[in-house]
Amino acid sequence: MSETPEDRLAALGVELPELPSALANYLPILRAGEMLYLSGQLPRRADGSFVYVGKLGGGVSLDDGVLAARMCAVNIISLLKATVGELSRVERVVKLGVFVASVPEFVEQPVVANGASDLVGEVFGERGAHARTAVGVVSLPGDACVEIDATVLVKP
Length: 156
Description:
Largest sheet: 5 strands, mixed
Number of helices: 3
Order of helices and strands: HEEHEHEE
CATH architecture: 2-Layer Sandwich
CATH class: Alpha Beta
Number of domains: 1
Strand order of the largest sheet: 1-2-5-3-4
Distance between the termini: 22 Å
Helix content: 25-40%
Shape: globular
Number of strands: 5
């Protein structure tokens, strides 16, 4: 029997959290046929509190930015699991959009984004290989340092 994404999560020691409620008037996830569009996930705990706040290059370290992106990816995976049940139904992670709150001089957004991309690859293998955007922004909700949205293709 082949290893499932859930098996890989367990081997990595990653527990999927319950997600906090949305911060505003939007759907956390929208299904259109076999495509899932996930709204931006922030580095938030189940109680809604933010874990990494501030700006990269202005008080938030590169290492913490990478950890924040990884936490956003965990929240994305948790939302996927709650929506489709078995993560093996994910046919392809199509794209991640990574937004990094950073000072104008900070240029390591792709390194921060690797925190999410690496975890997605570890969990989904080849099906986790995705297109990606990594951009710097002035600010994010709750002063979070990273926000990530996703587009995912699932099996019917």
